[in-house]
Amino acid sequence: MKIALVQTNPIIGDFAGNSARILARTREARERGCRLAIFPELSLCGYPPQDLLERADFIAAHDRALNHLLPGTGDIGVVLGVIERRTGSGKPLYNTALLADNGREIARSRKRLLPTYDVFDETRYFEPGDRSVVAPFAGLRLGLTVCEDIWFEEERYGVDPVAAMQADKPDCLINISASPYYHGKLGERQAVFSALCRRHRLPLLYANQVGGQDSLIFDGHSLVLTPEGEVGGCAPGFAEHLLVVESGTWGTEEEQSVPVDATATVLAALTLGVRDYLHKSGFSTAVLGVSGGIDSAVTAAIACRALGPENVLAVALPSPFTSAASIEDARLLAANLGCPFKVVPITPAMHAYRETLAPLFAGLAEDVTEQNIQARIRGNILMALSNKFGRLLLSTGNKSELAVGYCTLYGDMSGGLSVLADVPKQMVYGLALEINRERAIIPARSISRPPTAELKPGQCDQDDLPPYETLDPILQAYLEERLSVDEIAARGFDRAVVADLVRRIATNEYKRRQAALGLKVTSKAFGHGRRYPLVQKFRS
Fold first, then answer.
1. For the chain, give me the number of helices (H) and strands (E)?
2. Do residues 14 and 150 share a domain?
3. Strand runs (DSSP E) across 111-257, as ranges?
4. Using 50, 70 and 90 to split pLDDT, how confident is the model at 462?
5. Are residues 40 and 173 in the same domain?
6. Both ends of the chain: CA-CA distance in Å?
7. Residues with catalytic annotation?
8. C-alpha gyration radius of the chain
9. Are residues 324 and 240 in the same domain?
């Protein structure tokens, strides 16, 4: 029997559009000789719908869409991710895998393991299922699971859904998923799934959502694994796709292994994240400031990949402290990308601010205040261009700067989307090299010269920060590994430097709370998955 693993890119709440995608892919699966088509978790409403699940009208719209959808699937089986109502005590909904054939329901399997870590908060909305389901279909016994159900960890969950279904003797496991991407996730996922298949001597059919949704990026990479834990085939990442699996061999028509999670994968994720955030939000064009530095250069290159260079406006905003090299590199970058480029000097606005504030600042030396005014002038000009021309402003700061507050509220932090907010500085350099792999796009000088904000004469990032090769590993240890100051220092870092960076992370939480939405590409991003109080005195 041929089975289709279908990775779709839904828009949350677009029931008509999502239904049309499902029906179109169902027809394609039928035309390619498939008897069953498997779609991702909550494929009808899109994942994660968050507090829309608390709206009665949202649930009613979902149910109407499902009732219209099922008869249209025709003479083929489908596994869909749907919302299921429930009554009684507890939460009012289940997160369910629905198996139907010829438009009629055969079985429902309710998600048993509800994640509540990082970006997940499913116990807020859903009641866990209380049994594992093995459903007969076309001569096979299908073990139906939803996403987290195959990520069992004994210390986190008291029940193993796959182990619990073994008495019913499944022939294969089916997992419908909406598993967001982060750097390293592909290898981690394959290792967990391979061990699961070997442990239970069962093949696994895994259908994963694809697409950008707010800060999350879903990578797809739907796959089939054999009972020996070997990859029988893998769908491409970061694009909609239909992968045909043969149940006799647990192989696919496409010979493709799980790709290595490299810098190119991160670049593909960010490109998809930018494209989907803008297009799903109703934008088609973007604007950003380009300084001649590496962060804005990488952001501009990603935006041009995502939207087309003709839809990205790059703006240089020089001050008296801006070097000629910076303007030259910004202009060269735009020429290499083929995107429109403008120069808007900010010197007249700086003079106006100085005159306006002179009576209030009389007798006081210039300090970081005047530097921040420059950043805010730039932010205001870019926001004016955004407002006037309907372009979404992309902010260009990286994770390393955002972590320690080396950024200006209402200045360089202005924008509707922060492309590199979860990209450490050293990874930014890696992205630049990847972008330049086939031809020189980012000027060599933007990559090679020491990073600087150019807000005062001779300024360099390392006047205020440790070298990024020191800073980034400390940030990873503290943010992603959750190590203490002493544990990080034990790795060979200066304890005073570590303690100062941890202090900066804590005291700049208020800035990050007001930052533009950032795309998540590491295991612990600033945003919904990391919730710390703004006012607190704990220091590691």
1. 16, 20
2. yes
3. 133-137, 140-146, 172-177, 204-208, 210-213, 216-219, 223-225, 231-234, 241-246, 251-252
4. confident
5. yes
6. 57
7. 41, 111, 147
8. 25
9. no
